[in-house]
Amino acid sequence: MNETRDWYKTAVFYQIWIRSFKDGNGDGIGDLYGVYDKLEYIRSLGANAIWFSPLYPSPNADYGYDISDYCDIHPEYGDLEQFKKVLDKAHSLGIRVVMDLVVNHTSDEHKWFQESRKSKDNPYSDYYIWRDKPNNWRSFLEGEAWEYDELRGQYYLHLFAKKQPDLNMDNPTVREEVKKVLRFWLDMGVDGFREDVINFISKKEGLPNSLGILPIIGEMKYYKDGPHIHEYMKEFRDVCNEYNAVQIGEGPMTTVSSALQYLTGRRKSLDMMFSFDHMTADCLFTEYVHLPFKLVRLKRALSKWQYSLEGKAWNTLYLENHDHPRVISRYGSEKHHRESGTALACAYLFLKGTPFIYQGQEIGMTNIRLKSIELYKDVSSKNNYYSYHVKDDEEKRLWRIHQSSRDSSRTPMQWDDSEYAGFSTVKPWFEVNPNYRDINVARQENEDDSILNFYRECVKLRGSSPALIYGGYKEYYRKDPNIFVYTRSLDGEVWLIVCSFCRERLPFILPKQFMGMKAKLVLTNYPAQRQQGKTYTLPKPGFRIFPYEAAVLRMS
Ligand code: GLC
Ligand code: CA
To answer: What kind and span of H or E run contains 511?
Structure first.
């Protein structure tokens, strides 16, 4: 298969959620001074691109995803000059930079909204979605999707928090504003955008009431992949094309067939999309229904996207970001911290697509368990606690928050074992996970077989072989509840990836077609027990693998 070899296909992204990454000026809040100092660290992982979650001025009702000025930097994080310094240094290290574009909504403190509220006939009055009477839609983050505004005497739509009014993308002036924002950052030299809930920006005319019984699910058909979405996306694409900028869409609830509409054909408007199917191997809608982790669910979702996009479109690969709890606590085992952290890395970093590593994932940071809901910051966790899980007793409600809060991925980055985990010299804006004395970058730098060094090895190996980037994917033992086995092959070169998700030792028999073949063990997470670099004749029945053992083999 002849893939077009665009830069993003060989890229490995590192995602920065700046507030908790590194405090460079001693006020307890992560910032661009801290990022500047850590760019070499990011490069040392083998990453060659950064996605910045929002850096813009924001009242932080949704920690940056409520933007009050698209063309500036939040003063807590630095200023445009400091941003430019980070950008230039990143580029000089060979790291590309992608910004977060959040245009489904703004903050209610954005000048546009402040103007829009004032009357029904000012230049900004149609920038948002106003109605005399609300419909029955629910928001994702905070109760009903409509809020009454006294000044204007009308309700405005907010699909997310109350302080995140939805923009009216049907208004051509709003789309012009979005294009100005794109140009502002592209002219400065950024390399593209991650586009927040971009499949929600076109709403069905008339905003019909939902007939469904389940909140949100019923009405979603009226704004997901809405009637004009592809026209609007085309307008933004044209601007990005002038700069050869990459566009990565976030697509909550997206399906393969709707994703392909954005990713292929004449109206291709995105280079990649973040899908969510594989993030529900232990839940339904992350924060609502909790289920025990099932490897088969995870594999089914991953394989579905691998097979369905083959030869047509390019996948994103991720296990964590600022919206999901830490993956070791979900799909791995905190007790088998190193083993499960490395097995998870191996399971996803060799799939076909562009990998994203979220800050702290590379050292296996885990979920925080705070004692009371008051200590949590995230609007979504509070909303779930107070509005959805009300039938449970206190202990169960808190357990649900421990399992699912987005705050678990937002605790300060654990750099070393000094006070405040080396994140800051003063008490940080949010709790540090108490396990920072064991789990931190400095310690893992010094341990050859650490999760951190395993990530480095995976990334390096991936980059060393076109087959591991462009090769076809094939899954084996689809229904096996304990192991994930797949190959990547190109032009006769075959790589076999085997990852156990089991806490016990397991008998393991290779797929028939590999029996008797020779295989070089190129990477293992059990370096003391297995000889890395050795060529084995593949094992016969009776062979047993270790708990969470992961291996990458090159077949011959
Ligand atoms: C996206 C962001 C999330 C935010 C939401 C609303 O899903 O990743 O953090 O709350 O959009 O902007
Ligand atoms: Ca700071």
So the answer is: none
* Residue 4: per-residue pLDDT: 66
**CB neighbour class for 334 (10 Å; exposed up to 12, middle 13-18, buried from 19):** middle
- The alpha carbon of 326 is separated from its chain's Cα centroid by a whole number of angstroms, namely 11
Residue 105 has what DSSP assignment?
A: B
State the Cα–Cα distance between residues 115 and 95, nearest whole angstrom. Answer: 39
Determine if ligand 1 sits within 6 Å of the CB of residue 14: no
Cβ neighbors of 10 (< 8 A, separation 6 or more) are 463, 469
Contact status, residue 343 vs residue 26, Cβ threshold 8 Å: no
Task: Give me the phi and psi of 99, to 5 degrees please.
Answer: -95, 160
In angstroms, rounded to a whole number, what is the distance separating the alpha carbons of residues 108 and 245? 29
Q: Which of 107, 160, 274 to mutate to test the pocket of ligand 1 (most atoms within 8 A of CB)?
A: 160
How close is the Cα of 308 to the center of ligand 2, in Å? 44
Ligand 1 geometric centre to CA of 65 (Å): 6
Q: Which ligand is nearest to the CA of 139?
A: 1
Find out whether 32 and 55 touch, Cβ atoms under 8 Å: yes
Residue-averaged pLDDT of the chain: 96
β-partners of residue 490 are 493
Q: Which atom of ligand 1 is nearest to the CA of 380?
A: 10
Q: Is 101 in the pocket of ligand 1 (CB under 6 A)?
A: no
Q: Is 63 in the pocket of ligand 1 (CB under 6 A)?
A: no
Question: Per residue in 144-190, pLDDT tens?
Answer: 999 999 999 999 999 999 999 999 999 999 999 999 999 999 999 99
Residue 388 alpha carbon to ligand 1 centre in Å: 19
Smallest CA-to-CA distance from 56 within 67, 45, 47, 46 is with 67
